[in-house]
Structure formats: C-alpha cells, structure tokens
Design brief:
single chain, 168 residues, alpha+beta, 2 domains, four-stranded antiparallel beta sheet, globular
Length: 168
Amino acid sequence: MFRTTSKVLLLLACLAPAMPAQGLAQEAPVLADTLPPRILFVTSGGYWEEQNEAKDETAELDEDVSEQRGYYRLIAIRGEDNRSLLQLQQIALTTNGPELATSTGIEEINSLGGYITDIRPEDSTGAASGPGFAAYIFLKTDPTVVEPETWALYIDEFGDMQVERSSN
C-alpha cells in the first residue's frame, strides 16, 4: 500500500509542472478567437522601466523604491468610418503576467484620417539594447495612391515620444 501511494504521489509530482503549460496552450486559441475584427496590426517591442518612490520616509531604503517594467505595444485599429486609428500601450510585466499599464491614442497619426497599411518595429531581434521603442507606420491618406507614406514613432529612454514623417 505504501509503495502504491508513493508511486502515485511521485507521478502527480512529475505531472504538476506540465499542467500550467497545458492550460496556457489551450488559452491561445481562445485569445485569438476573441480578438476584435477591427484590429488591423499589432507589434510590440522595446522596454520601459519606472521607479516609484514610496511616500513613507520611515521605510527602509530597499523598500523606498519599487520598480515597474514592461514593453510597448502598438495597435492599428479600423475605426467606425473605416479609417485607421493608432494606439500605443505600455504593458507591465507583473507576477500575474502581462497587464495593461497605459493606453494612448497617437494623435499625430489619427488626425490624418488615413489608412494604415502596415506597422514594423525598428528592431525585430526580440532583444532591445536599451529602453525605448521605435516603429514605422505605413499609411495612405488617399487610397488611390500606390505607395504609402512612412511615419516613424520613437520613444526615448525617458519615455518621451516623437512622431514624424520619415524621409528616405
């Protein structure tokens, strides 16, 4: 009896690490199926860090600063009038997984009333060398024009954003 119980416990202990991975694999199709049809393009990359100082001056030095970090996500959305809207998000990496920290419309692009035809990150290696983010947005303000305009979105290490038309 003891040997059988030990074998069952050993088997369960070996299977336990595989259970969460199987749950995540099953979650992917559900996430894909619930993605709104108005989402045109999504790209992510870069990273950001923020240090939040505690207001309690009696706290220990180690507890004074909490660090929050994450990555950027750029989303092109088909608007109600079929023109494109661009949204920049900061995704926080938490102990519970990725969470939306901020979401901001990119007015420099949204005010053009154009049609986004593509979004490309500046770096597709998957390993950012420093904080910030850069991406290229391809859009047409006139759907009959063959070549789209190229716009660049840059976020520096301080979180300051610049959006400008690219010149090649």
